[in-house]
Every structure is written in structure tokens, then in C-alpha cells.
Amino acid sequence: MQFDARKPLCGHLCHHGLDAPHPVFVTIDPRRVDPDYELALGHAERRRLGVEGGEPLLWLAPVLMSDTGATVNLRAPIVVHPARMVALQVLGAESAYTTAHPLPGR
């Protein structure tokens, strides 16, 4: 699959953990919720991901589903460096985004 960081991913992604207890979680591209989504990466996060320049990164927002609907965590996305296959969850402490942003229905 060809990755283009400028275009939002379609739909959702389902992730399966390989190690016990084999967690499963769903994410979406945060730009599907807010087309202007932007969260800055700090120096420490860039170093841990191995970002050296303007490499494209994949931003994924965790989705929480419940009986009353779904919310998306825009404050603490998972950032993936696709070329290195390294990821980490970052916390936008100074962010106006919430951890439980309503996910609009279709």
C-alpha cells in the first residue's frame, strides 16, 4: 500500500496485538473528524520515532465504542513512522483537543 501523509486515510483501522493479552483496538485518521487537525511533536517524541527531517508520519486517533456511541481520542494520538515501523502514543498536554471527542455518525 502506498502511503501519502497529505491525504486522510479512508475508514478505520483495526489493530491486533501480537503478545498476550492480544489487545485489539480501532483507530481512525484524526483528519476524518477535524480536517484541520494538527498536533506538534516534541523533540523527545521526534527522537524516539527517529524523525530526522520531513518524513511523512501516520497519525491515528484511538476510537472508544460504547452502548451510547463512539468517541475518538484526539488529544493522545498514536504516531507511526512508516519507514521505520516505529510508533508511540503522544500526549498533547497543551492541546485543546479532548480524549473523548464525539465521533459523528454517518
Describe the structure.
- This protein is mainly β and 106 residues long.
- The chain is 7% helix and 31% strand.
- It has one helix at 43-49, and strands at 12-16, 24-28, 58-66, 69-72, 78-81, 86-89, 101-102.
- β3 (58-66) and β4 (69-72) form a beta hairpin.
For this entry, give a set of tags.
7% helix, seven-stranded antiparallel sheet, 106 residues, mainly beta, 1 helix, globular, BH3618-like, 7 strands
Task: Provide a concise account of the structure shown.
The chain has 106 residues and is mainly beta. Helix content is 7%, strand content 31%.
The major β-sheet equals: 7 strands, antiparallel
Kindly provide the radius of gyration, computed on alpha-carbon positions and rounded to a whole number of angstroms. Answer: 14 Å
Distance between the termini: 26 Å
SS elements, strand count: 7
Topology:
Blueprint: E1 12-16, E2 24-28, H1 43-49, E3 58-66, E4 69-72, E5 78-81, E6 86-89, E7 101-102
Antiparallel strand pairs: 1-2, 2-3, 3-4, 3-5, 4-7, 5-6
